[in-house]
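Lab notebook, design round three. We kept the backbone fixed and only want residue identities now. Task for the bench partner: fill in a sequence for the structure below.
Input structure tokens:
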């Protein structure tokens, strides 16, 4: 069967009205962003489950569809409406970038949604497991990934590209149903619900220019260096967003830090640095950067944020024990270590009495956090045996 994509608003409206009758839809996108700040949506793939009494032929034809958002005159409003329909679950794999696109275009997260990558971590498939591995493990099928790095903005798309793209939502149905059933069977559905709560917030996908300095690598910055670097990073982020170009097309990180250190006051000073000389600044950018540097230099100094304290020798040893405990608890529960606690979580638990970290909240606390606190209090012990590390509960210690 030859494949084609929906290219008209009327056809898209009919499709979305039909798919709105499904309990869930599988969704994927193809996009480009090498030369832009915001991703350019090039293709949308969407699928639905088989309906009762539907023939193989009808399901193959109607059960998964491609949508061309670059088609002349097409209005994606019906698709955004389906994504906002709370009666239909949206299923993605590694959803973050796909959802960022919908937030950018429609200012809304497709809710509710189910991320099969996170669900797979909850079910013990490992850290950030790829779609190809899940399809091979769950569906017993291989995928042709040769079109992965294709140019999705060029038209017409080839049959090979379309087949590749459609596979990203057809197999996703089986992956979702397998993982959903397993989560329900193992009483872990609420684990995933907790994970989705953060990802369902629009703020998760919006980049605030005032926070852009956190991307910079600064080693023990002084007050003025920090102030100027922070201000330049904010200007750069806002400029990149306004011009829709990657931030490093506006100003590279190393050149930004050079300017923050030298704090030039003239055009010649700004453009004569070893690193800034290679940049192709417009007159407007030069003026804006000089104004930014001057204002930041004159501003009331802010203290740079303190680097988190490092654990001492005893605390480091405790963090290592907590890491061993984590592996023991996650191995027994068949869940990915990384999903339960990060290295910074473990260090914080080793250094503080009861820090506010994810590992000590919700289902993570039940699985690991309480045991971590008991280990600190000497109420559990670790024993290496033929079946691996075992956690032995000793009970409360005698305070006397």
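Proposed sequence:
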């Amino acid at each position: 069967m030859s494949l084609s994509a929906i290219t008209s608003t009327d056809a898209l409206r009919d499709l979305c009205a039909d798919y709105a009758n499904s309990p869930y839809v599988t969704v994927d996108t193809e996009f480009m962003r090498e030369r832009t700040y915001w991703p350019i949506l090039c293709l949308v793939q969407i699928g639905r489950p088989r309906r009762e009494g539907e023939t193989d032929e009808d399901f193959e034809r109607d059960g998964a569809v491609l949508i061309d958002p670059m088609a002349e005159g097409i209005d994606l409003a019906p698709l955004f409406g389906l994504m906002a329909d709370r009666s239909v679950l949206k299923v993605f794999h590694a959803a973050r970038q796909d959802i960022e696109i919908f937030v950018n275009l429609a200012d809304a997260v497709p809710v509710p949604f189910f991320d099969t990558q996170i669900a797979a971590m909850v079910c013990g498939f490992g850290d950030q497991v790829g779609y190809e591995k899940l399809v091979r493990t769950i569906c017993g099928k291989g995928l042709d990934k040769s079109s992965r790095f294709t140019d999705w903005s060029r038209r017409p798309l080839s049959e090979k590209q379309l087949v590749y793209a459609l596979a990203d939502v057809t197999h996703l149905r089986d992956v979702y149903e397998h993982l959903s059933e397993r989560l329900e069977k193992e009483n872990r559905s609420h684990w995933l619900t907790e994970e989705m709560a953060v990802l369902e917030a629009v703020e998760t996908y919006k980049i605030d220019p005032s926070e852009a300095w956190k991307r910079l690598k600064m080693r023990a910055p002084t007050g003025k260096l920090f102030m100027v670097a922070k201000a330049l990073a904010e200007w750069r982020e806002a400029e990149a967003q306004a011009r829709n170009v990657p931030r490093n097309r506006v100003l590279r990180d190393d050149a930004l830090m050079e300017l923050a250190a030298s704090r030039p006051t003239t055009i010649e000073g700004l453009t004569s640095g070893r690193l800034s000389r290679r940049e192709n600044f417009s007159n407007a950018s030069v003026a804006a950067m000089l104004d930014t540097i001057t204002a930041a230099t004159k501003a009331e100094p802010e203290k740079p944020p303190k680097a988190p304290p490092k654990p001492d020798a005893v605390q480091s040893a405790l963090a290592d024990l907590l890491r061993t405990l984590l592996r023991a608890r996650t191995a027994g529960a068949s869940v990915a270590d990384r999903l339960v606690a990060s290295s910074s979580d473990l260090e914080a638990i080793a250094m503080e009495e009861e820090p506010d970290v994810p590992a000590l909240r919700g289902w993570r606390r039940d699985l690991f956090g309480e045991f971590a606190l008991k280990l600190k209090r000497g109420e559990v012990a670790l024993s290496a045996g033929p079946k691996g590390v075992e956690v032995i509960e000793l009970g409360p210690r005698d305070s006397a």
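Keep this in mind before ordering anything: The longest strand covers residues 24-32.
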